[in-house]
Amino acid sequence: MEEYRFRQGFLWGGACSGPQCEGVFPGDGKQDSIWEQWYREDPNAFYQQVGPQFTSNFYQNYQELIPMMRECGITSFRTSIQWSRVMTDREGTINPEGLAFYDRLVDALIANGIQPMLCLLHFDLPMYWMEKGGFERRETVTAFARYARLCFEHFSDRVKMWFTFNEPVVIPEQGYLYQHHYPLVRDGKRAIQVAYHIQLASSMAVREFRKMNSPGQIGIVTNLTPAYCQDPDNTEDQNASQAVDLIFNRSFLDPSVKGEYPRELVSLLKDNSVLPSYHSEDLDLIRDNTVDFVGVNYYHPRRVRHRQAPFVSNVFMPDKYFEYYVPENCRMNISRGWEIYEKGIYDIGINLRDNYGNIPWMVTENGMGVQDEEQFMDKDGMVQDDYRITFIKDHLKWLHRAIQEGCACFGYHMWSPFDSWSWSNAYKNRYGLIRIDIAKEAKPTYKKSAQWFRQLSDQNGFTDKDGAPLFL
Fold this sequence. Notes:
The protein is of the alpha/beta class. Helices cover 39% and strands 15% of the residues.
């Protein structure tokens, strides 16, 4: 049996987001984000018409769930502040009920021995900014910096680790290219402008943080998804994977960590006539306000090859450079339709070590969503999710190897401590250590993985005993 021990002080925890767990309640003063608006416009776009108001009710039951999280071995927890909860309009009017809730939440986490980490935006732009153009406009960028400063001023006495954005590339990718998020646009030029303004907003938030001389640190959460080409010896396949890496990984990683955009990305955008509008002084601001550390969300790789047939589109789309393929005999989480490839987390670490100055980083999300978990309940009602335990262990083995080879990873967060609502997926796929059943208004219950994660956290590692097979 091989032991996998992690360095002292390694952070074990979990992640969620405000819009996916808090809910909306009368008198809470929260304004609509893009999710409430989209649900109002088209409830049929949401799985079983379950919208953002029916989340895990964390706004009301956090006092019950936080001690349960600690029992699971959670010693650090990342969630997000909802801009639409703490500010009521474009003028920046403060909602005292919103700030008071996050005060109570932060204090409860600390009281239970859990380090709070706060993210400023997790896909939930307030509708009062979206109706003015969202991140297509610089006005939203400067407003984000003001909002960030409010949060730093109010919470930095207790919160020492901050994130500007969660998965910033997803906002232009899903909202302005592939029409999976509001505002459901398909326009590559607008997508690039949105992406640029989000990076500028992130850098402005870092600048505000540094102005305060806060004792904490600030980073950004990136969903780094390695792009593996079908044939490493095929130049066209190599070019396809490089284009995917530039657009979906390096477009935020490089300016956030290195303070500059890859020249190859600039050339690609110029060749397609989609360079964003910018001010020359912006580039100095981005250069001078890089992050202290990086959060990495990893679930699955991208498998790409050169496009077999021309891609026809009247707007710029990244798909012109590549197409996806499914390798033979790859392992899949059939509930989610995602490949399970644990070595990806190692490859990410080596890339950060070798190409980004070995910047400190942590796994901010990793997890396995499974449909119909009721089928794995024992007679006492506990979900026997051995598949989740095996999934975590197998990823941690590769993470441990990366650390042994010099990678500066300092923590691992699961998505998620408890089952939470997902954008168009509701509760179809469940990720939690704790089961939440909103429909039946049942009490939260521990899954088998909660017991295992507590042992992992307490022992700062695990022994590779024979485990249950991964559910496929």
